[in-house]
Design brief:
Layout lengths: L1 H31 L7 H24 L13 H21 L5 H23 L15 H19 L2 H4 L7 H23 L7 H26 L6 H6 L3 H5 L9 H30 L7 H19 L4 H27 L25 E3 L2 H6 L4 E2 L2 E2 L12 E3 L2
């Protein structure tokens, strides 16, 4: 009787974790990505499609033991929790290419990333290889965050066009406020993310460690951002780097003490803020890497940081840790390149960072920053036709009834 009650309590606990993580996936990630001011519908709909495609596909493959150490029943909340982790990795990857693909292509991403994610999970987390049997990655600093980030960054190198590289990613006060709401939802439920699959006697320590890591990252973000931005802070830093502690604490969230967790959070917040303020711009300039949401700063670098911290905490796991990190990077980058080419073959987005390509709601194109061009308006804009080219700009002049973008 006592065992039965204990089992029921555990099941209820897992259900609560599952709902909390689902809130992170839909509300947290969804609203965090609406900062691009004319791309909100696409970001939220893409979030829906990624989550809705990955959960059933992961459950199906796991139920039959495909790309898994063992089969797990699709009718349990525990298996659903693992499926949610896969969805989190996919949403991270989505953040790298956000705004530069059509909405239906996020669905393709959701379907294609699952086999690569499960292959990596099997080889590293499940210890399918002898060298990875001691891998330490409790809440997925490497297997979820770093995997998702570098999968997405590999896709963006394939998918981003020369024209898209020249476009500015714009936000405004309203879109940034919604993004902050998403950030706060993620902050709020991150302890559930880390505590979901730890042993019952480790839940309290894991939850406290996660919150302290988030606190450390938040304080470091504000201080470092103010220093790097010459006395003012940047809202993108606040929306993202405040979460870096949750990413970096993942590998060892149930192993470190609260003081160590806080230090890890401070280091993560500092690294992430430095990434947004300095590293991201240099990568874009040097190698043309366009990372819409800055997933390298938040999930990539801090996922690796968390994985490397585990070597300090558990020195005996060093070989497994390094091997698992390398395997993860190879599968993520390779899978991202393959997925990028497949998505590229299914079509291209004409108006980057704009909902107008995918939603009937914006047929009144003025809502998306577009206006219909009439003959009179062409004259007012001083366009001069000569073989379809404007004398003033050297660009192709629009025809009557076409659309132009309002800056």
């Amino acid at each position: 009787m006592e065992n039965e009650i204990s089992t029921q309590i555990h099941e209820v606990s897992q259900y609560n974790f599952m709902i909390g993580i689902l809130a992170m996936l839909l509300l947290g990630f969804g609203f965090l990505m609406v900062f691009v001011k004319k791309n909100g519908f696409s970001a939220l709909t893409g979030t829906y499609l990624v989550v809705a495609s990955i959960l059933p596909l992961y459950l199906l493959l796991k139920h039959f033991g495909i790309l898994s150490a063992e089969a797990m029943s699709a009718s349990t909340v525990e298996t659903l929790l693992f499926a949610e982790f896969a969805a989190a990795a996919a949403l991270i990857a989505m953040g790298a290419i956000l705004g530069r693909v059509r909405v239906y292509q996020y669905l393709i991403l959701g379907i294609l990333i699952v086999p690569f994610y499960m292959l990596n999970e099997w080889l590293t987390t499940d210890g399918a290889l002898a060298i990875t049997k001691d891998f330490v990655d409790t809440a997925g600093s490497i297997g979820i965050h770093a995997f998702g980030a570098y999968f997405g960054l590999a896709m963006t190198m394939v998918l981003t066009t020369k024209k898209q590289k020249e476009l500015e990613i714009q936000s405004d006060a309203n879109s940034d406020k919604f993004s902050l709401v998403g950030s706060m939802v993620l902050w709020l439920f991150w302890p559930s993310f880390c505590s979901a699959i730890v042993a019952p006697d480790e839940i309290q320590l894991t939850a406290v460690n996660t919150i302290l890591a988030l606190c450390g990252a938040t304080l470091a973000t504000f201080i470092i951002s103010s220093i790097l931005r010459k006395g003012k802070t940047n809202i993108a830093d606040i929306a993202n780097a405040t979460l870096a502690g949750g990413v970096a604490i993942g590998s060892t969230c149930n192993l470190v003490n609260p003081g160590q967790a806080f230090v890890i959070g401070v280091a993560a917040g500092t690294l992430c803020t430095f990434g947004f303020a300095i590293i991201q711009g240099k990568l874009e300039k040097k190698i043309g890497l366009v990372d819409t949401c800055g997933v390298n700063n938040l999930h990539g670098m801090n996922g690796l940081l968390g994985g490397l911290v585990a070597i300090i905490i558990v020195p005996s796991a060093a070989a497994s840790q390094i091997a698992s990190i390398l395997i993860t990077l190879v599968i993520a980058i390779g899978g991202g390149i393959i997925t990028g080419f497949i998505i590229k073959a299914t079509g291209a987005k004409m108006n980057a960072y704009n909902d107008i390509d995918d939603f009937t709601d914006l047929e009144d194109e003025e809502e998306a920053g577009y206006v219909k061009v009439s003959t009179e308006e062409l004259k007012n804009l001083e366009y001069r036709r000569y073989k379809g080219v404007s004398h003033e700009t050297g660009e192709e002049a629009p025809s009557e009834g076409s659309t132009i973008t309002l800056e």
